[in-house]
Write a structure and sequence with these properties.
By secondary structure, the protein is α+β, with helices and mostly antiparallel strands. The protein contains 27 helices and 32 strands.
Length: about 1000
């Protein structure tokens, strides 16, 4: 006699029920708390429609799919139970199942309910995760462009195809689960037997199972029909392009059509042969086997033969049409179909007067590298150790003194990780040190005499005194900032508790004036941001959400007017408000109408644009600066991207505003419709003046153009004119060179333009192939242009140019003096600029001394054609290079002894040369003595003497003096290093 199944005791069942109830209660409670706090946060930022839409959609999908799956599976099991045979045949197999039936039958409804509920929960959670696909599906738009094979609007692939695929997947899963559950139920109750005489399956069981099998095959037929559209999203290995190639269209597409009809016939055959003709499973099994054979033969072997024997021997002829489809679709999907530009001969290889006289690009060349000088900003503008400017500053343009130029800008953020041990109490981190202070800017094309940035705004000290003492500050701020307090920035990762209902201010604001014992200035937040947490209930709610008991214990820091500021990183803030957007990795601050606003570029993307080449977003946007000031994008595949939204986050109030930038983008239209029209269409002119071409979009387009700048399919197939992004010559590690913002006038541009540029080299070579630039035209429309170099000439690429500049004998010797035990060199961005019918390369070199742990600009390296030069500033460097190319000795390269007569024939010129000699000698002596004060004075004197020489030379030319054409050859024997 077999041992009966053990019974669970009443006490054990109660304990189990209590445990399950607690788990459910905790899960539900956690969900309620997080949902409630989310609603409060969305109410603060005035985007409750986004919260409501997301919550409503997820709950609806969870309920519909979960309930549907539960009813489907539970219903099928109960139906199998009802169709069980009333009299079971006597057999050893059935006797073995008796004890299982005895255990299951009394609890059949409970077991079915449990199985159905678990299935429903899993399916509902799965459906909840495709809420974005459903929103696009239900708000689908037309692109107005059909695919090149079927003529179906692109919108079908972008909006509908992904959700159809999900439905097919869910259908397959549920039918398969039902088939397994029904088979087990029929077997348990004798409807299906594995042994014994006579029919081994009852008529009811056969009908039930055959219907499920037929339904599975019908779903397969539907999948085959959908696969025909999916071919346009596939990959063609023979050409390395995405989309359907010759084999897919001429072999696989007909195969899918044939297999779809075969599957429908098989579905009918399963029903008919199982229940009306043979009334067994032999013929249905044969039908299914034939479908499998057809799938392998027609869907696999035949296309493989076509590829091997027809396509590969003659790829250009067979695949040309489909390569053209890929080129057209890819250029349209990435927004590079209307790219401008042309061939730039770069015929001038000798620096001459035309280069020195350029007034459009050369005067605007940026010498401050925003990735190199954050430490300089922090050191010179920090004031307190807990302030920080981040790992990377930003470049923007402002009009100061009637001149519009680019500035390196940053905000003085509070970094709680920099608080000292005594300052790192909970109260200090969350209620005292709550914000940063100040918007700091410096012209990007100039520095002070000692290589420091020349600040025009943001000082916390006495600006008038600083300006008089030569502390690289222009005096009163040139940029008007009404509210300099920074409560929202990427360094503010802690939440803050602000507000008061009386009493003294407690938030640290900024240092006070006077001596070391002067009182610090305090402040209280009065902005509109923050969630009210004045009541005990709110404090309890957030104590549970943040898992922080101090919300209840630190009662002295809460009052009736208390507010909680959290999600303070502008990028995270926009991502939470608009989860349908991909946010650029480099938000930047700007002063707009006196307020500091974070500006963020946002993208709509898709991965189902037919025939468009897929790219990995993370790989395409990563370069040597990613992760150090620029956020890394998620690793995901896309084949469509648009910069459709410009977002702003107020640095004081945290207000998030989304502006519709691209009004033609169907994807954005679908999202805007899904969320009830949350986008603003009227962009203020003062804000638009600070828009810049987005970096991550530019990087994706740059990587795409490396291959898809070729528009002829035969040339594309040869792949002998591919480009690539060069490695960053200024950093180790082999990472890609980042693009750079500059103010310059490129070919075909009518005036100097603020733009984003990048050099492109030939594939597997270091020679320069093209320069890509992107900007906004006068009407605010984005423009891309490729300045392509002649293919029959060799032009030095960034790595070759830097190697040439570093290894030039005169420059090498001078740089070696700066790279010593007491100091080190740091190379800034290497710019490649088309100027004066040639190519100008500019690279700032910074120096960091042991006693000065932040970089200061000391040298500018330049290259033009085969010539290179250097100097303390760009003008001097170009003069040095020009003098070298004409065969005259540049300043500092030898000559008569110091103080000797140069023989120019002009007393003023002679005096200027002697002044240069003395300044160079003083500079060399100061650097040998590591006297930074003397070094700064010597540099100032050198700059003054150089200007004196230029003025004297102009005067000599005007009077016809014989010294007018002379080039000074001062006699400082020890050639000083231009960079320490």
């Amino acid at each position: 006699m077999r041992t009966p199944l053990p019974m669970v005791g009443r006490r054990a069942r109660r304990i189990l029920a209590v445990i399950v109830a607690l788990i459910v209660l905790l899960a539900a409670g956690s969900w309620v708390v997080s949902t409630w706090t989310d609603w409060l946060w969305f109410r603060e930022v005035s985007y409750t429609s986004v919260f409501a839409t997301n919550l409503r959609t997820r709950l609806a999908l969870f309920a519909v799919f979960g309930a549907g799956a539960a009813v489907w599976l539970g219903g099928n099991i109960l139906l199998a139970y009802r169709l069980r045979p009333r009299v079971r045949p006597r057999s050893p197999e059935q006797q073995n199942l008796d004890r299982y039936r005895a255990a299951v039958t009394p609890r059949i409804r409970l077991i079915v309910a449990a199985v159905a509920i678990v299935t429903g929960l899993i399916t509902g959670l799965s459906a909840r995760g495709v809420s974005a696909q459903w929103l696009l599906f239900s708000n689908a738009q037309r692109f107005g462009v059909g695919d090149p094979q079927f003529g179906t609007d692109i919108g079908f692939y972008v909006f509908k195809y992904p959700f159809y695929r999900y439905l097919i997947g869910v259908g397959f899963t549920l039918v398969f689960l039902a088939l397994v559950a029904v088979l087990l139920t029929h077997w348990l109750y004798g409807g299906v037997r594995l042994s014994g005489r006579g029919d081994r399956i009852t008529h009811a069981a056969r009908l039930h199972l055959s219907i499920l099998v037929a339904l599975f095959v019908v779903l397969k037929a539907v999948a085959y029909f959908l696969d025909q559209r999916g071919l346009l999203l596939g990959h063609t290995s023979t050409t390395g392009t995405d989309g359907a190639g010759y084999t897919a269209i001429n072999a696989l597409l007909p195969a899918k059509q044939i297999l779809a009809w075969i599957a429908l016939v098989v579905a009918v055959a399963v029903l008919v042969f199982s229940n009306a003709v043979a009334r067994n499973l032999i013929w249905p099994g044969v039908s299914l086997a034939l479908l499998a054979i057809a799938a392998v033969t027609v869907g696999g072997i035949y296309p493989g033969m076509v590829s091997t024997f027809t396509v590969k021997p003659n790829i250009p002829a067979k695949e040309g049409k489909y390569i053209q489809r890929s080129i057209t679709a890819t250029r349209a999907a990435y927004g590079i179909q209307d790219i401008g530009g042309g061939v730039y001969p770069a015929s001038n290889t000798t620096p001459d007067a035309k280069l020195a006289a350029d007034s459009n690009t050369v005067p605007n060349v940026r010498l401050l590298d925003p990735a190199k000088v954050p430490a300089t900003f922090t050191q010179l503008q920090q004031v307190r150790g807990f302030y920080d400017f981040g790992d990377k500053l930003n470049v923007d343009r402002y009009t100061v003194g009637g001149r519009t130029q680019d500035y390196v800008v940053g905000v003085r953020q509070l970094d709680s990780s920099r608080l000292s041990g005594a300052q790192r109490t909970w109260q200090n981190r969350h209620a005292v040190f709550t914000h940063g202070y100040g918007f700091v800017a410096a012209p990007a094309d100039t520095t002070c005499a000692d290589g420091q940035p020349s600040f025009v705004s943001g000082s916390l000290g006495d600006t008038k005194r600083a300006a008089k003492q030569g502390d690289c500050y222009s005096g009163p701020s040139k940029l008007h900032v009404e509210q300099p307090r920074i409560y929202y920035s990427d360094k503010l990762t802690d939440f803050a508790i602000v507000g008061k209902d009386g009493g003294a201010d407690r938030e640290y604001d900024r240092p006070g004036g006077g001596g070391a014992n002067a009182p610090e200035l305090q402040n209280t937040y009065h902005g509109s941001g923050g969630v009210p947490v004045g009541s005990y209930g709110r404090r309890l709610l957030y104590a549970l959400d943040f898992h922080d008991s101090n919300f209840l214990l630190a009662s002295d820091y809460f009052n009736a007017d208390s507010k909680l500021l959290y999600v303070r990183d502008p990028r995270a803030r926009v991502e939470k408000v608009a989860p349908f957007l991909t946010v650029d990795g480099d938000p930047y601050p700007a002063v707009v109408n006196g307020r500091v606003q974070w500006i963020l570029d946002c993208y709509t993307t898709s991965s189902t644009y037919p025939y468009s080449q897929r790219t990995d977003l993370q790989s395409a946007t990563s370069d040597s600066q990613t992760g150090s000031g620029t956020a890394e994008q998620d690793r995901r595949s896309i084949n469509y991207i648009r910069n459709s939204v410009k977002a702003t986050v107020d640095a004081y109030t945290g207000k998030v505003t989304l502006y519709q930038f691209d009004r033609t983008d169907p994807v954005l239209k679908a999202w805007n419709a899904a969320y009830g029209g949350i986008l603003k269409t009227d962009i203020p002119k003062d804000l638009a003046a600070h828009f810049r071409y987005p970096e991550d979009l530019f990087k994706v387009q740059r990587d795409t153009l490396n291959r898809y700048h070729i528009t002829d399919p035969q040339a594309f197939n040869k792949q002998d004119n591919l480009w690539e992004t060069p490695k960053d010559p200024t950093r180790s590690g082999g990472h890609k060179q980042p693009p750079y913002y500059v103010v310059a006038q490129f070919p075909e541009q009518q005036q100097p333009t603020f733009q984003l540029t990048a050099a492109l080299t030939s594939h597997n070579r270091n020679n320069l192939a093209a320069i890509l630039s992107a900007y906004y035209d006068a009407s605010g429309r984005p423009k891309l242009a490729v300045t392509e170099l002649p293919g029959n000439s060799n032009f030095l690429g960034p790595n070759q140019v830097q190697s040439k500049m570093q290894n030039q004998e005169g420059i090498q010797n001078n740089l070696a003096l700066g790279d010593s035990k007491t100091s080190s060199l740091d190379y800034g961005n290497l710019l490649t600029l088309p100027v004066a019918d040639g190519l100008l390369y500019v690279e700032p070199v910074y120096i960091k001394g042991k006693n000065v742990p932040y970089p200061l600009l000391k040298t500018v390296l330049v290259g033009y054609g085969s010539q290179v030069g250097y100097g303390p500033d760009l003008k001097s460097a170009i003069a040095n290079m020009t003098a070298s190319s004409t065969g005259t000795a540049p300043p500092g390269d030898g000559g008569s002894d110091a103080g000797g007569d140069t023989g120019t024939g002009s007393p003023d010129l002679d005096a200027a040369v002697r002044a240069i000699d003395k300044a160079l000698a003083d500079l060399s002596a100061a650097r040998k003595a590591d006297d930074y004060t003397a070094e700064g004075k010597a540099l100032a004197e050198l700059k003054k003497a150089t200007k004196q020489y230029e003025d004297a030379k102009k005067a000599a030319k005007a009077t016809g003096s014989p010294g007018a054409s002379a080039t000074p050859s001062p006699g400082a024997k020890a050639t000083p290093s231009p960079g320490r």
